[in-house]
Specification:
mainly alpha, single chain
Length: about 110
């Protein structure tokens, strides 16, 4: 094999390798694009799911706020009633004392 044939052979090999490299890179690029598309679809599904969960949490937070407000109102009402009962008990104690003092009747049962 002479030098010219070797150079031609090397150039042919380089050309074939270059073509093969381009073909391989194109195939890798296509597969990468397919994987990217799959990931994009998966992310869209995930984000849609996150949106759904966020909406449910917002509804839950509103319900919790309503419940908290209701409990606050109940506790306020209970506290007021407890104070009123304390005042009424003291008034009854005073009335019993006056009845015992004026009429001589003890209304304490215990």
């Amino acid at each position: 094999m002479d030098k010219k044939q070797k150079t031609t052979s090397l150039k042919d090999v380089e050309k074939l390798l270059s073509q093969q490299t381009v073909t391989i890179l194109d195939a890798v690029d296509k597969r990468t694009k397919k994987v990217d598309q799959k990931f994009e679809r998966m992310f869209k599904i995930m984000y849609k799911g996150f949106d759904t969960v966020d909406k449910r949490f917002e509804k839950l937070e509103k319900k919790i706020d309503k419940l908290r407000i209701s409990i606050d109102k109940f506790v306020t009402l209970y506290t007021k009633q407890e104070q009123e009962f304390t005042i009424i008990k003291e008034d009854i104690r005073k009335i019993k004392g006056i009845i015992k003092e004026k009429l001589g009747v003890d209304l304490n049962l215990a």
